[in-house]
## 1
Amino acid sequence: MTTDPFNTTVREYFANPSHCGEVAGGVAGYFEDHGMRIRLAAEVRDGTIARLRFQAWGCPHVIAAAEAVCRRFEGQPVSALEQFKTGQIMEDLAVPVEKTGRILVLEDTVRSLGRAIENLTTP
Amino acid sequence: MVTNADPVYLDYAATTPLDPRVAERMRAVQSSAYFNPASNHFAGRLSATVVDEAAVQLAALLNVDPTSLLWTSGATESNNLAILGGAKQREHRGKHLVTMRTEHKAVVDVFRALEKQGFEIAWLAPDADGRLPLERFEAALRDDTQLASILHINNETGVVQDIEGLGAICRSHDVLFHVDGAQSAGKVPVDLAHLPVDLMSLTAHKFYGPKGVGALFVADGTPIAPQMFGGGQQRRLRPGTLPVDLIAGLGEAASVASSCIDKDLLHLAALRDQLWKGIRDVEGLQRNGQDRGGYPGILNVGVQDVEGESLLLALEPLCVATGSACNSRSQEPSSVLRALGRSDLEAQSAIRFSLGRQTTSAEIELAVSAYRNAVKKLRDLAPERVR
C-alpha cells in the first residue's frame, strides 16, 4: 500500500515554519553534511533560550525537524540542549530510517549551538 | 476556475485520463461483446469483430496493416517481447545490441537481463541536448550487431530522437530496429509505412486510453521469438485470451488521436511556451532537454541550490514528477539527467511538467506562480553556506 511519506506534523511544520529566520545579535551554530546544511541561532537571557530560529537546506523531514527543535527548546534552559537526542524527533516526524544521517546533521548543529553559547558565556 | 485547493494535474507523461469517448466505447463492449474472441460461436465472432475494428483504428493511426499489430498488456510487455524476442531469434547473427543510456527502465532492465545471458550491450550517450548523433550511432554498430532499441520521445525530457535517420542506418547494416513509442504513439504523427522501423511498442494509457493494454507493431517478415506460451492466440507470438473491452478502448483512443493530434500539439506548444516564459527568469534555472524541436507536452527544468524533495512538496497541489514516474519513489538522481551531464544535485532538483489535452492556461498560470513561490520559499529557508 502506498502511504504519504510525510506525516501531518511534517506537513504542518514544512508549510508553516514559524521559527524560520535569524536572530539579530544572537549566537549561532552551523553544521553541513550529507548535502544538508542547518543553522540554529539563539538569543540567550539569564541562562534561558529566549528565542531560537533555524535556517535549513534539505528535505522536508530536515526542515520539519529543525522547526521541531526550535519549538522544543525555545524557553528552555541552555543546559537542555545537552539532552537533545534524535530518537524522539525521528519518531514524532516518522522520519524514514534511511534519513537518519540527515537528522544527525541536526544533532550536530544543536551541539554546535551549545558550544557557541558556552564559548560566549565562559570568561 | 482553479483554486489552490484543487489538484493541478501536470503529469500526463505518467498517465492520461480516459477520454469520455473511450470510456463510452468500453462500457458498450463490456455489456454487449464480453465474449471470448477465440470462441467459435457467433458471440465469440462478435467479440473478434470488435478486436478487428480496434486493429483497423490503431493501424490507421500508425499507417500500417492491421495484421502487423500484436496486442499486449502495455509498453513494458511490448518492449520485452520486441527486444528479448528479436535478440533471441537472431542470436545466430551475433550477440551485440545497441541502445541508449537515456532509455526507460522498461527497456534498460530488458537489456540488463540479456547482458546476464551473454549478450554485449553498447549503451550510447546522448549529446548535451539529449539527442543521439547519427554518426555516433553508426560508429557503434559492428558486424555482429543484430538489434538496436531507441526511445522515440524521452519520458523525462521530451527529447525526440531522429527515428528516420537511425532506422535508415539500421537498414543499411541489417540491424533489427525497435522503437519504444510509449510517449509518441497517439501524441505525435507516426507513419510506420514510411519510417524504417521493424518493431514499435506502445501503450494505450499514455494517449487517453485504458491502462493494461498496449500493442507491438511487427513489420512484415520481422523475426521475433515468443516469450510466452499457451493458447496459440496472435500467431503464437503473444498467446492469451484478449481483453476485448481494453482493446476496444485502445482502438477508440487511437481513433480520437487520429482526429486531433495536430490540434493537441498546437495546444500543448502554446501551454509549454506559456509555462517556460513564466519561469525562465528564475535565477539558476536550467532546462533539461532540447530548447527546440522537443515534444511540446513535456518541460523539464532544474534549479540550482534547491532540494528536490522539498521542492516537490512545496509545489503541492501541483501533480508533477521529479523523474520518471516508474522510479519516482527512488532517492537516486535520474540516470537520464545524469546522462545529459547534470550533477546529482542538479538532477535531484529537476521537475518534469507534462501537459495534456485537458490542461488549461489557468492551470499553467497557477503552476508558474507555485513554482516561483516554492523556489523563493526554499531559498529563503536556507542558510548561507559557510566555507
Note: The helical segments of chain A are 8-15, 60-73, 86-92, 100-121.
## 2
Amino acid sequence: MLELRNISYHVDDGKGKDILNDINLTIDDRFTAITGPNGGGKSTLAKLIAGIIQPTSGQIILDGVDVTGMSITERAQAGISFAFQQPVRFKGITVFDLIRLASGKNVSIESACQYLSEVGLCARDYINREVNASLSGGELKRIEIATVMARGTKLSVFDEPEAGIDLWSFQNLIQVFEQMHEKINGSIIIISHQERILNIADKIVVIADGRISTQGKKEDILPQLLNGNAGCKHMAGGCING
Amino acid sequence: MDEIQKNLLREIADLHEVPEGAYNIRSDGEGVARKTTENIDIVTKTDKPGIDIIIKPGTKHESVHIPVIIAKAGLKDLVYNDFYIGEGADVTIIAGCGIHNCGDQDSQHDGIHTFYLEKNAKVRYVEKHYGDGDGKGARIMNPETIVNLAEGSYMEMDSVQIKGVDSTVRVTKGKVGAGATFVVKEKIMTHLSQVAETKFYVDLDGEGSSTNVISRSVAKDESKQVFYSQINGNNACAGHSECDAIIMDKAVVKAIPEITANHLEASLIHEAAIGKIAGEQLTKLMTLGLTEAEAEEQIVNGFLK
C-alpha cells in the first residue's frame, strides 16, 4: 500500500510556483489511473513516488515504511518501478541487457524473450537490438514496459504510456495493459488521458491545478469525466481522447 | 611460458591454448613460437625486425594470430610486420600487444603493420592493446597501420584499447582503390593520467571506394584523448567518420575532423559528439535498482561493447 501524506511540491523559478498542493492519497487497489489536464501535476506526482524528485513537504509511505528520504535506487530496491513517459535511449546497451538489469538476476534469453512477447514484440527481432535511436517511439515504450514487468515489484508506476506513439501502436498497447491487469501481482498506477486505460482501472484519481479534484471507483468517476463533470472544468473535451 | 605471459595472451588475443591456424608469438622482443599452414607463410625479415605474412590467393576462412607480449621492464621493441593478402582470399588476422610492467623503466612497443590486399581480398583485422603491472615505468604503445586496398577488396579493422596503456599514438593510413571498402572500428578507454592520440588518414582514390571510421571512447580521471581524422575523396566515393566520446571527471577529449572532397561525386560526412553521461540514463538505471556507480559502469561498458 502506498500512502501520500500532505505532499506538496514547490518550484522556485523566481516567481515561485506550487506544482502540487497538500496531496493526500492512499493507493491499495490493484489498478489506479491518475488523470487530469496537462500541467496539472500528474507526472510530477509519478516522479515524486519514484524518488526522481523530492517533495517540498509531506511523506511517502510504502507498506508502512517512510520512503520519503530514500534515493531512487533505494526506492527501486524497496519495490517501486517506474516507466518513463519518454524512455531513455542508450548507445550499446541492448534490450536483453536492460531486461537483465531490470530483473536483477541472471535471466535466460528465453525468459527475457517472454517479457518482450508479453508486450507484443517479436522477441527474436528485438532481444539483441541496442536501445538506441534506431528504435521507434512505440517500440521503446513497449521495451520500457517490459523492463517494469521484468522487475515484478509490488508497485509499478507508468507515466503516460500512450504519449508519443501513434494510434495504431496504441491499439496494441492497450491490450498489453488489459493483460497486465490480469497478471501482475502488485499495484499499478498509470498516468493517462486515455478512456480505454481509465476503463480498466479499479480506481480513478483526477488531479488538476496541483490538487486532487476528485477520486473514487472507476464506475463512479469515469461517467462524470465523460460528461465533463468531475469537478474539473478542463476535462470536457480536452483531455479524453478515447 | 609463465603466468604473466599467459595472462597477457588471454587479454589481447583471447588465447587460452595454442591457437588454431597460423601464428607467430613474439615475447620480449623475440619470436618464441610460430606455425605456418599450407596457405599462410610467415617469414622473418632479414633487413629489419619483423615478419612477412604471406597469404595465398583464394585462401578462405583461415586465421593468423600474431600477438606481442612484453613482460620485461625497460624493453623498447620496434617491429615491422607486412601482410600480403592474395587475390580473393578471406582471412582473419588477430594482432595485439600486451605489456606487463612492474619495473621503474618504461616499456614500449611500436608496431608498424602494412597490409597489401590484392583484388577482391577480404580481411578482418582485430587488434587489442592491454597493459598491466604496478611498476612506476610507463607502458607505451605506438601502433601504425598502413592499408593498401586493391580493386574490390575489403578490410575491417577492430582496434580496442581498454585501460592500462599510459601513452599511445595510433596512426592508421588507408589508400582505397576502386570499389574497395575500408572500415575502422576503434574503442578506447583511458583513465588516470593516460594520453591517447589517434590519427586516421584515408585516401579514397578509386571510383566507388568507401570508408567508415567509427571511434567510441571514454576518458576518465585526468586522461587526455585526441581524435584526428582526415578523409580525402579523390574520386566518386563515400566517406563517413564518427567520433563519439564520453567524458568523465577531469578528462579532456578533443576531436578534429577533416574531410576534403577533391571530386564532384565525392560524398563525405563527419559526425562528432563529446559529452558526459546523460543524467536521464543514470536515472533510468537507478530506477531499476542500480546504484549511481553501477549505472555508470553499465553505461560505459555498453558504450564500448
Note: Chain B touches chain A through 22 residues (CB under 8 Å).
